Amino acid sequence: MAANNEEKQQNKPIGLIDLSHKTLLQSDALYQYILETSVFPREHPCLKELREMTDKHPRMLIKLINAKNTMEIGVYTGYSLLSTALALPSDGKVLALDVNRQYYELGLPIIEKAGVAHKIDFREGTALPLLDELLQDENNKGTFDFIFVDADKNNYLNYHKKVIDLVKVGGLIGYDNTLWSGSVAAPPDAPMLDYVSELRDHVIEFNKYLAQDSRIEICQLPVGDGITLCRRIN
User: What family does this chain come from, according to its entry (predicted)?
Assistant: First the structure.
C-alpha cells in the first residue's frame, strides 16, 4: 500500500495548488495555524477585503527598509499594491505597471476606502516599454528604494536588466514565484501542468542569472511559491 501511495505521488502533476505553500510548510493545518495566529488578527480591514478576492498575503518589507519611492510590475486587483501603499509614509509613492487597468479598477474602490489612492501612480501598458521610458531620463536611475515584480515569468530576466538601473544602491528588488510550483528542482520529464512546464525553463534561467549577477546580493525565501530578494550593492 505504501509503495502504491508513493507511486501516485510521483505521478501527480506539479501545480500551484499542490505545492504553493509546501516548499517550507508540510501541512495545511500548520499553514492555517500561522495565518490565524499572525496574519489575520492584525490584518487591516481593507487588506482582508481584498485578500478574499485575490488570496495573497500582506508584506511588511516596505516598512523594514523605510522605503518611499517604490514600483510594482504586475498589479492584478491590487492586493500587494494596497499592502505597499499602506506601509509607505504619507509622502511615499508607488509606480504601478500593468497591462490591464480593468482588474486594477476592481480593487480601486477598496484602495480608495483605505485612503491611500493618492500614493499610487497607475500606468497601463506593457512594462518593458514603460521601463525604457523611465530609463531615458537619467534622473530616474538609482531612485527607487524597492521594486516588486510579479508579472510574466518569461520576461523576468528582461525586467531585471532594466530595473537594476532604476533601483538605488542598497535598494531591494523582489521577484515572486521564483520556485515556480517546485518545478525548478524537478526533472525535465516530470509530469506537471502545461503552464508550469511552459515557463519552467525561463524561471530556471532567471534564477541562474541572479546567482551570477555581481551587482546584487540575493536571498531566496522558500515560502509560498518562492520569493527572491535582490539587494543592489553596486
Answer: Belongs to the class I-like SAM-binding methyltransferase superfamily. Cation-dependent O-methyltransferase family.
